[in-house]
Amino acid sequence: MLLRQKDLWRSVFGLEQTVIERVFMDHDQGAIILRVRPHSRFGRRRCGVCHRRCPGYDRGEGPRRWRTLDLGEMMCFLEAESPRVRCPEHGVVVAAVPWARHNAGHTYAFDDQVAWLATHCSKEAVRELMRIAWATVGAIIERVSADAKKRMDLLDGVRRIGIDEISYRRGQKYLSVVVDHDTGRLLWAAPGRDEKTLAEFFNLLGPERCAEITLVSADAGSWIAKAVERYCPNAVRCMDPFHVVSWATDALDQLRREVWNTARKDGQHAVASDLKGARWALWRNPEDLSDHQRGQLADIARTNRPLYRGYLLKEQLRQVFQLPHLRAMDMLGRWLIWARRCRLAPFVHLAKTITAHLAAIEAALQHRLSNARLEAINTRIRLITRVAFGFRSTGALIGLAMLSLGGLCPALPGRR
Length: 416
Known about the structure:
By secondary structure, the protein is of the alpha/beta class. The chain has three domains: 1-102, no CATH class; 106-240 and 370-416, Nucleotidyltransferase, domain 5 (2-Layer Sandwich), CATH 3.30.420; 241-367. Helices cover 50% and strands 18% of the residues. It has helices spanning 5-12, 108-120, 123-130, 134-151, 195-205, 207-211, 222-231, 241-265, 269-277, 279-283, 291-303, 305-320, 325-341, 345-356, 358-367, 372-387, 394-405; strands at 18-26, 31-38, 56-58, 64-71, 74-80, 84-87, 91-94, 160-169, 173-180, 186-191, 215-218, 236-239. Helix 8 packs antiparallel against helix 9 and helix 11 crosses helix 12.
């Protein structure tokens, strides 16, 4: 079947509702130019933001160009008039076109290919292949991510969520992150880690869908607890077991430093040196210890009973979260009695902390819910942060995370 020349060009660049008037070569720029206009079915007088039919305002500032996918080694552009319309909601704006997003200098196909490449390739590969600056990649990612969020409601049917924060830049710069436990998708992220920041997510979710949230896993951050209590009346907050065990590890390390400082001040330099080198033996799980580390633990059990007692307290607390609900709560109750009477200040304080969060810890044991899935997402966000180095805005970083982890990444042009 023979194609007309204009139909061929339309197929090559994936143009819909577009009329190609002519094709010519711009020798100064070394590029192929397609002179186009919107098809009558699309209409020429639509708001570029909301696509509402609007009265015309003026003819604009003359023709403008949009970068589209390369044709072999040649760069290609679409060229068209850019009239403006008067929208009752958005004022005077450039009229919408069927081949590009509002205020974009690139076509849909170009934007989508850059977004796909950014989630699958290194930034150098994206820059070299698409012949654009990395800052331009960031702007494209923001556009594509925002457009995908309008078309795909990630918050529909959400019942169990995990909330955490992650550092994305030096200087106490944090992102608040929300993940869906059932789908494993990143639902939302925003700069900041306070109740006001988290309120943005719950306001976006809306009162009806907030009422449908049943379980929320998180650490002991008061800003999370207050926001969940305020916006999710039917939700049960589950304390992340990993954070509880990390409290015990921190208490054990604090005890080790106290014993090490005492030995050093008393002139017991050999003992102090052994304690300093035994840090990882005390931290690691028993099944992961090397032979040398097992020997270090045996020496501590023989020469420093208080520190070894702290190690046993840490290990028994870790075992709590590996048992079924009722047995775990029984062991945790006995652990609290032991910790309160152990005469080790860091663990006495830890017992008070755990008692204060006992309801959330029991909920985590009962529902077997943790932040493990969220920690995996955070690990991937850290990798994305390294890739995104050079983005001028946090929005671009969040957009890249949503494309990669939120299921918003578009398909390659022509492969939907």
